[in-house]
Batch of 4 targets.
Target 1
Amino acid sequence: MEGVRDVGRVQVSSGGFLPWAPWVLGFVSLSVFFVLALAGWPGTFVGAGGGFCEAFREGSIKQPANTWSNLGFVVAGLWVARRAGVDRKKAARPSNLVGRSVFLSTLYAALVVFLGPGSMAMHGSGTAWGATTDVLSMLLYIAFPVAYALARLLGGGVRACVWLYAVLAGWLGVSLLSGTLPFSGSTLYTWLVPAFAGLELWLQLRKSAVAREARWLGLAGGVFLVALVIWRLSHTGGVLCFPDSLVQGHAIWHLLCAVSAAAIYVYYQSEHDPRLT
């Protein structure tokens, strides 16, 4: 295949459409967002997102700060996509799964991008379907770190990671949209985050020849914990809740989570597995 070089068990593409997918997703999803906003949002306004302090406005964008701060995810996802492309050009034989698979690196970047429009749908519209889109983007994203950690822990390759992600994300997505989740989507997300952290710590602590720059995982975790504290304190009625302020604690949560997601990718890319060289 043109533009593809063989690197053993996996192929790394140096061209084609796939690396551009996060950019296309960002453009299309944001375009749909603006069209729906200008159209006055389909569906009934139910005050979705009202628990995150910011007062609802009369205009097309119901919670401006909590909405526009989600562009941080779009920027972070596109940065990951660009970083992945640069890394592919530098490393002839990448020694980690995201480096060896254009699909995995592109998927991760796209999932980070989608976190932005997903959350914007809720904070911008205040509708029930907007809230569902927000939770869907969260579940689709967190399924990747969990599947990626499981694949490396079990000694699987790219194909194993893809299957694990497809099964987990597919179950979460279908169950959410069909209303058959045993718990709320937000509750499952809060469980999957520590599950991902625990799996990564297990990988760090077990004896292995695999080298990783744990500082990036530490940065991602530290930033996320700070964001989590701000998120909690800035709920409606919280000490950091100022409904009419242009600066919202929940908006800061969005921006810090975007930084954390980017740091996770750098951590993945820092991994050196001698078995893959």
Note: DSSP finds ten helices and two strands in the chain.
Target 2
Amino acid sequence: MKKGDETRLMILQRAAEVFNRKGYSGASMSDIMEATGLEKGGIYRHFDTKDDLALEAFDYAVNLVELEFINALKDKRDAIDRLRAIVGVYRAMPDGLPVAGGCPILNTAIEADDTHPLLRDHARRAMDKWREYILRTVTKGIERGQIRPEIVPDDLATFLIATLEGAIMLSKLYDDPRHMNRAVEYFQSYLDTNVRP
């Protein structure tokens, strides 16, 4: 990797954390400069604007989470095991894994809802991909007899995401992992009693 590419990647890595923790509006270029150890000109040599950096940093953070999903799912064939693996990825987010600050989609969706349409669109596309992991898992699980046939894949995806994203928010807000632990325990029990045939 060339030196310029290494510098660009380092900026993305560190900016992703700053934006995820402070938000687009809350993160100043001074924050980015402090995190990267670069002057403003060094950052703008690689990114034209703060918007460009924010969008790429968001995509970088989401890609880190997607890699976690891929790794968690790769050896799982049973649909319930796959759903538990997805829950496991969510469970680590309040602790800053794989990116500090919690879920990048949750953080960005709340902040950019009415203020930054481009970031909102990136968040929506990223959530579409995450929902697709769940929808595919549930649909295949029904086809293979691993999930009850009356389960509606879209409903289960909404329930899983809303429950776990809400648990991330509560865990971060109160700095208390009990909220995520309760949500995970409830959802895993729900899988065994209401989803598994």
Note: The mean pLDDT is 94.
Target 3
Amino acid sequence: MARKEESAPKPKKQSRTGQIRSAYKMTRKVDPLVGWITLAAGFLVFAVMLAIGFLVNQPIFFGLIGLMLGFLAATIVFGKRAEKAAFAQVEGQPGAAAAALNMLRRGWTVTPGVAATRNQDVVHRAVGRPGVVLVGEGSPTRVANLLATERKKVTRFVPDVPVYEVQAGNEDGQVPLRRLNSKLMKMPRNLKNDQVAEVNRRLKALGTMNLPIPKGPMPKGMKMPKGPRS
């Protein structure tokens, strides 16, 4: 009896420490002072709590609380600056909105590149409790036409579901990349979880354009398929 072929070893998952180290290296390229600012935030909180401890004659107790709060403060500051650095690296590049949408919290299904033009105007689709959100990036005029076309397709499959159109970018009427996810999270919750699952099931029939959009920004100069012109 032939021996079963040994399955290829699965790639090792990056440890939590490794993830933090990678995030720090990425952030430091954009924000060289991130390490000092993070340490300063943690130390400041610790120092304040320790000073309060001396005032009330309980330095050890308040010092321990200060250590925990200082670590929390440093974590929050680092997280905010790392997120800002990540957006700064991809902002202005085609596919940046898809990279931002992939950072949405649980409960959202993101389908990048559901429509595009040869000029690298792209529409991505996000489905969540608010309904269907179409996010376009590119020239405001061309993207508006592309969003309208995609909206018609979506409403044919889910006619009773709210469909929102959002343009990501820095032009008038567009949403800056760093505020894109918060805008989606603030939208009204119109659907229940089972309804969201049903919407996703129906929209699978629409498919995608199979654009080679990576998890990060799309490389500049990438050839896009021919699409509608404005």
Note: Strands lie at 109-116, 122-128, 131-137, 163-168.
Target 4
Amino acid sequence: MSKIAHVLMQQETANPVVIGILVVVVIAALVFLLILLKFARLWLQAYFSRADIKLSELIGMWLRKVDARVIVLSKITAIQAGLELTTKDLESHYLAGGRVPNVVRALIAANRANIDLTFKTATAIDLAGRDILDAIQTSVNPKVIDCPDPKKGKETIDAVAQDGIQLKAKARVTVRTNIHRLVGGATEETVIARVGEGIVTSIGSSITYKSVLENPDRISKAVLGKGLDAGTAFEILSIDIADVDVGDNVGAQLQAAQAEADMRRAKAEAEKRRAMAVAREQEMRALVVENESKVPLAIAEAFQKGNLGIMDYYRLKNIGADTQMRESIAKPKKSD
């Protein structure tokens, strides 16, 4: 084409329109060659792997800003594993923000383990933020969850039996993923919380702590029978009590605290009664002083009415002086 263009340009009768068309054709051919070189390796890889991906589809992925390499390798992996997945499905999941390689590997693992998992379910789980590959692996190979979670800063589940003795327990919960409840199902934290609540309830219903130490498996059987995995993304296979230790005597501590509170209340009531007695004594003393102040008035009135003579008055004064002398003699002397 370059030679033809050169010949035409040398001719004096050359048509400018023809020259323009030839330039456009040359540019288009160069662009096509560059695109072909860009996607040739992926196209050949898909072609020889029977992935059935057209060159036009690769160009479309490039225009839609889709990583063509991810789509091609994922489809090749699926085809080699015997899965029938279309390029459109893989591309649509990629555009939705999904992890296409993760989904494909999860589908392959589910197919090998005879787990019923469709592409629609797998993509829904992936878009929900769950790791679908880890879920399939957990469904095939159950995992163990520590209860309580040591990462939360708590090492044991503390509960008190009916005799007031505290017990510290550790449990290990074996679970596997329930694929059908993975979307919308509760996470591991819910399972740990429910198991912890069940252990506390079981220990609290025990008459004595000794019965728990003798048969710790009663706790696991009682907790396992409550169906704690309902509404979660897991199926609980077993609950094993790993360790049970004796803690504080909470009952004795509560009784001591109650006795201390009762003693303080009794002291407060005694102090209240003492204060009332002191107040009553002060009232009586005031009443005596008040009545004593009325004695001179009564004597004066008796003199006026003639009910009291002068000798009677002196006799009364002598009695008062004698009384004061006796009181002064009865009082102990102050030491110097």
Note: The longest helix spans residues 250-293.
